[in-house]
Amino acid sequence: MLKRKFTQCLEHFLMEEPNKILLVNGARQIGKSYLIRYVGKKLFTHFVEINLKEDKEGEQVFADVHTTNDLYMRLSNYYAEPLGDKSNTLVFLDEIQSYPHLMTMLKFLNQEARYRYIASGSQLGVALSATPSVPLGSVTIEQMYPLDFEEFLWASGIGKEWIDNIQGSFLREEALDESTHNLLLKRFQYYLLIGGLPEAVNKYLIDRNMVRVRQTHKDIHNLYRIDASQYDEEYKLIIRKIYDLIPSNLENRKKRVVYKNIENKTGKTFADYANEFEYLTNSGITLEVAAISNPRFPLVESEQKRLVKLYLNDVGLLTNLLYGLNVNAILQDTKSINLGTVYESVVAQELTAHGFKLHYYDNKQKGEVDFLIDDYDHLKVLPIEIKSGKDYTQHSALTKFLDTPDYGIDRAIVFSNERKIFKRKGVTYLPIYYSMFLHSKLREESLILPELEMPQ
């Protein structure tokens, strides 16, 4: 079994949050059901799993459930053994977006508290926006993603203690020795090829056969395209077109979505495709990066939806589309191949998995910076530039960005393949694998409020 960070999230919620229902959102094929099943069977005597997508496409046992008593009756028929109570029974409603009326019912199931519940879905964001009565106050929504780079290292046999030592070097801004650097960089290159989809990782671990890994990438990419085609008739063809254009958009200099290319119509803007973008991002199959022209902390106050970049949710899917079985494009650092798109995609994947909302800097006079994230420790904006070549110290847009007094930003990061760490004019140069240690959460000690003084 692949070790996942989300396991701790599931266990903590089920043990420490008895009065809410957990909704796990995320794209298909990222391991949601497997992990919930594993944790559920581990913590509860009775574990009931119902795949509502399969039910809707088959017997439709739960299609006409409109009261909690209806559901209890179906559950008793569905599960062979007598069910217990809230202390020892967990009901897992998988792909709950298939039946929106059950999402509304969660509030009442939670109030009656006969059993514990957990639900998951691959399009919960889309479904919730269309649900007339969202059960606010009764549910907690958590997002799950493919394996990040650290989880990939665990899967490939590198232990937590070794990674903790590496993280210590990152925190001290120390370079690793040559052999450790080369080992990590090679693992990073493998991650670019394999990505973090559990089935692809497991295929790699069995026999290192990239033919099987790439077939998995093809199958999942096609699955995502098919899911898009099952969406609303008015939007499905446009959704697929936007999704199919992502690799070619990323190969352009600007990398942003060109709206006129979607339907070959001039004058189109983001607003014309808002529903399609909502599907692609809320279903978890793409990562959206919104433009910022005048950066202020927090970035959400300054974001612009008119200029958007989209990345695939998994870097393995991208490298399959770009290079197929030619793994040397990445492993041998072929000079004719520009890996900038791939490096940006994997950092977008890392930052998203670690809780950051993605933005990039766009200014007609100053240029573009790959990513802007909120630095909660310093309450400032942190610009990040990704470099895949030898000219990693050349970044005119980033330099102009830092030289703008109105922004008040004096710190930036450049990630590259280089081992050495140094600082120059506010920029810290770090090896690309250190991106796995950027997290949006504040240190625990900074979350403890001081005691209030009592009035005399």
Give a topology summary.
Blueprint: H1 6-16, E1 21-25, H2 32-43, E2 46-51, H3 52-57, H4 68-78, E3 89-94, H5 100-112, E4 116-121, H6 124-130, E5 139-143, H7 149-155, H8 160-171, H9 178-194, H10 198-207, H11 210-229, H12 236-251, H13 260-263, H14 274-282, E6 286-292, E7 304-312, H15 315-323, H16 328-331, H17 340-353, E8 359-363, E9 367-375, E10 380-386, H18 396-402, E11 412-416, E12 422-424, E13 427-431
Parallel strand pairs: 1-4, 1-5, 2-3, 3-4, 6-8, 10-11, 11-13
Antiparallel strand pairs: 6-7, 8-9, 9-10, 12-13
Structure description:
The chain contains 18 helices and 13 strands. β9 (367-375) and β10 form a beta hairpin. 41% of the residues lie in helices and 17% in strands. Mean pLDDT is 90; it is low at 442-446. It is α/β, with parallel strands linked by helices.
Gist?
By secondary structure, the protein is of the alpha/beta class. The protein has 18 helices and 13 strands.
Gross geometry: globular
Amino- and carboxy-terminal Cα gap: 59 Å
- What strand line-up does the widest sheet have? 7-6-8-9-10-11-13-12
- Counted by DSSP, the helix tally is 18
Structural class: alpha/beta
Instruction: Compute the CA-based radius of gyration.
Output: 23 Å
- Strand fraction equals 15-25%
DSSP summary, beta strand count: 13
Largest sheet, in brief, is: 8 strands, mixed
Helical fraction: 40-55%
Mean pLDDT: 90
pLDDT < 50 runs, ≥5 residues:
442-446
